[in-house]
Amino acid sequence: MKTFHLEISKKGLPCLWESGGGASNTGSATIIAGPTGNPIAPIYIRRSGQLSNGDHALIPVEKDFVVIEADHHRGDFTIKISRLTGIRREDPEKGSFWEAHPVAEFSNGEWDHEEAASAYAKAIEAAKAKATCYHCREPYFVKTISPDQVSWNKGENFSHAYRDGECIGGSGNSETPPRAFCSVCGSMKTWHGHPHCDGDQN
């Protein structure tokens, strides 16, 4: 039985970090996905501090979510897929952990359970891309905010964007066109996809 250290959000949500990145010849990444391999909206994106190959997105998780770990040396990958099964409470010093059951493993050029791994193809590709991203500083597999999930409340000097009742950012003043928070790159821009990937500008 594999375990992953459990993070608890300020609202008491159990979470895991998307993390990792690449060096010159090696790299590793941890990607979090939903039960069907879908990306999950993070509750927090790190945008300061030690970002290089570190923790990038705090993902709320539940039983049956999937963790994908990718490691490589010169492009020769080992990939492990685990499904979360429950929380194991430890003493205050050790913290708590998610217990996980192995689903599939890739090593020596092949999967041990290829059919099981195929359900998580997009998340696996994200893990490989992140593990080979030199000094990675951003999330690779998170659900972004769509325009219909964002509402705007214009104040005298600031326009605030809200999602699920929480302020997620805003524009410089009430006359500025609404801008939205990109949960992939953490930037505040007029509504866009992920600019690092699709090249959209302000």
Question: What are the SSEs and their pairings?
Answer:
Layout: E1 2-5, E2 7-8, E3 14-22, E4 26-33, E5 44-45, E6 55-60, E7 66-73, E8 76-89, E9 96-107, E10 110-111, H1 114-118, H2 121-131, E11 151-154, E12 159-163, E13 166-171, E14 179-181, E15 188-190, H3 195-198
Antiparallel strand pairs: 1-9, 2-3, 3-4, 3-6, 4-7, 5-6, 7-8, 8-9, 9-10, 11-12, 12-13, 14-15
What does this protein look like?
- By secondary structure, the protein is mainly β.
- It folds into 2 domains: 130 residues, Sandwich (Immunoglobulin-like), CATH 2.60.40; 52 residues, no CATH class.
- The protein has 3 helices and 15 strands.
- Strands 1, 2, 3, 4, 5, 6, 7, 8, 9 and 10 form a 10-stranded antiparallel β-sheet that branches.
- A hairpin with a 6-residue loop joins β14 and β15.
- The radius of gyration is 18 Å and the shape is globular.
- The N and C termini lie far apart (47 Å).
- The C terminus is likely disordered.
Largest beta-sheet characterization: 10 strands, antiparallel
- What number of structural domains do the residues give? 2
CATH architecture of the largest domain: Sandwich
Percentage beta strand: 35-45%
CATH fold-level label of the largest domain? Immunoglobulin-like
C-alpha Rg (nearest Å): 18 Å
Helix/strand order, N-terminal first: EEEEEEEEEEHHEEEEEH
Mean of pLDDT: 78
Q: What is the terminal-to-terminal distance?
A: 47 Å
